[in-house]
Amino acid sequence: MSTDTPDAPPDDAPSRAELAARVDELEDALAEATDDDGPKKMSIIATKGTLDMAYPPLILASTAAAFGYDVTVFHTFWGLDILHEERSKSLKLSSIGNPNMPVPNAVAALPGMDRVTTKMMERKIADNDTATIEELLETSLDMGVEFQACQMTIDLMDYDEDDFYDGVTTGVGAATALQDMADADIQLLV
Amino acid sequence: MSAEFDITETLDVKGASCPMPVVKTKSAIDDLAEGEILEVLATDPGSMSDIDGWASGTEGVELVDQEEGDDVYKHYVRKTE
């Protein structure tokens, strides 16, 4: 191996200007790849439509929007009822299979019990000045949260696109949700 | 304690519970100009931690002070950009 320094670079070596241009190019690419100046993103998949389970996605969505995050909530199966203008106002709470409820399952299974437990919960919500589902949804929409209604389950449940609140996006599926989750900093399934 | 800063607006969220104190604070701060201070009056004990967390995780706002009164929690948030 020679330690001699060649007097001149070989003919095929890039010139100084070419190297400088290449360095600039790579620096730009690096800056683009590490660009984290944009807002954080949160992606939630909402699958439940009971009164209690409608709260977590909406509370997190509105709070994340207050943090300045870009938020998308993809609603599928019973989660669609949260976006359904009529059904969102009458979400139910069941005490069946819920050991935290004060009635045994045998009693909870009696006709009309869901109505009783739902009324009980609605009264607690009102007494505590807890926001209603409708309020949280309207607030989140105002703050720019993107609510998506899964097209496959809209068809499955026989819902109509006009059944949902104004501002809800329809005509989207799993690929849209997956793409959104891939881009997000926080992904949650509720 | 007397505040050593000028309050531009006061937001009353007494009675409201999570997440409304934070959500309404965000909306109210949007209407202020840079440097102005919002006073938030809340009765939700969780607002002490929540508004602190929101302010430290959100760009353009700074928590100047918090006071825990007998019934009311007071928060002072400055808009920084």
Give an account of the 3D structure:
The complex is a heterodimer of chains A (190) and B (81). Chain A has 190 residues and is α/β, with parallel strands linked by helices. Chain A has a single domain, classed as DsrEFH-like (Hypothetical Protein Ychn, Chain: A, 3-Layer(aba) Sandwich), CATH 3.40.1260.10. Chain A is built from eight helices and five strands, in the order αβαβααααβαβαβ. Chain A has helices at 16-33, 51-66, 80-83, 105-108, 113-127, 133-142, 151-156, 174-183, and strands at residues 41-46, 70-75, 146-150, 169-172, 186-189. Chain A has a five-stranded parallel β-sheet with strand order 4-3-2-1-5, sandwiched between helices. The N and C termini of chain A lie far apart (65 Å). Chain B is of the alpha+beta class and 81 residues long. In chain B, 27% of the residues lie in helices and 32% in strands. Chain B has two helices and four strands. A four-stranded mixed β-sheet of chain B has the order 1-2-4-3, covered by helices on one side. Chain B is globular and about 30 Å long. Classes of the chains: A alpha/beta (190), B alpha+beta (81).
